[in-house]
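Readers of this paper often ask what the protein records in our data store actually look like. The remainder of this section carries one protein's record, kept here as part of the documentation.

:::
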Amino acid sequence: MSPVRAIALSGINTATRRLETSASNIANYRSNGALAEGGEPAVYAPLEVQLAAQASGGVSASIAPSARAALLAYDPQASFADARGYVAAPDVDLVRETMELAMASYELAANLAVIRTADDMTRAVLDAWI
């Protein structure tokens, strides 16, 4: 595989991780939990993508729990609410997650365009030799 295609493929994998992460965060943004450490149910821990440069070019992406602390939410009807009626809510910003989805969409499109261009250039070189 050519270096150009390998770098573009790493970008596609990164965009895929962004989509997975944002989808999970959006799906679980109302997954409240107990305030007490170790209480049941546990509050959803938002996910984030961590990127690392590869020596050969491109990036590697991994998904890890976010370090953001849970927020305080008032839900006295919850069976796991504390004496004041508060529960822990995940720190998920729907606007940010929507932007992440849009960025991932553009990232996918851009990297696919790179692969198509590399294919067109390879085809043109091969056609010139024949």
